[in-house]
Amino acid sequence: MKVQLRTLKIDGNFHAWQIDFVAALTLKGLAEALDGPVDPNIERNANAYLLLAVDDTLKYIVAGAPSVRQGYHALRMTFMGQLAAQAANLRSQLNSIELSRDEPVAQYVTRAHKLSTDIAWAGGEVSPMDFTRTVLRGLPSDYNSIRDVLEGQGPQPVPDLIFRLSQVEQRIKDDTAKGTR
């Protein structure tokens, strides 16, 4: 089976690369090399895969390591600071997210969900309850009644959140059109 490896670059997405790399080693029967001492043939082949999977600017990190496991760990450490900073920046963006004036609520929730997903890719975490609270906090006062209801119900799956908030959005539009708002 031919395996196409994504090349990790210094400004690349380590988490996405890591998933691909471990999958490639698994398909080739070499993943055990990441766990510790293995047969020299497995070590040699896994090391070759690791060297092929990194950009020239990163080869020095893994080439001098005594094992694939240690080279892989060195790569992780190289990217951890970068990923932590990226996750913190994304978290800040998520914490300050607000529904824009003419933005549909579905687009707003989707935008927040993308930030949440990006935080996870950078190694951070957003709990379902934190996500729900953050989305609700960014809504204007027209949504106060649904905000109270949803906060009392706990974490909301994204599709349910979009559905419930879209119903309120439609009511607000209808009331505005009637002149009752």
Total strands: the figure is 0
Q: Helix/strand/pairing class, anyone?
A: mainly alpha
What radius of gyration results from the CA coordinates? 23 Å
Q: Which range best describes the helical content: under 10%, 10-25%, 25-40%, 40-55%, 55-70% or over 70%?
A: 55-70%
Order of helices and strands: HHHHHHHH
Taking pLDDT < 50 over at least 5 consecutive residues as the criterion, the unreliable ranges are: none
Overall shape: it is: elongated
**First-last Cα distance:** 63 Å
How many helices? The count is 8
Major β-sheet annotation: none
Strand content: under 5%
What does the average pLDDT come to? Answer: 89
Describe this structure in words.
Helix 4 runs antiparallel to helix 5 and helix 5 (105-121) packs antiparallel against helix 8. 67% of the residues lie in helices and 0% in strands. It contains 8 helices and no strands. It has 181 residues and is mainly α.
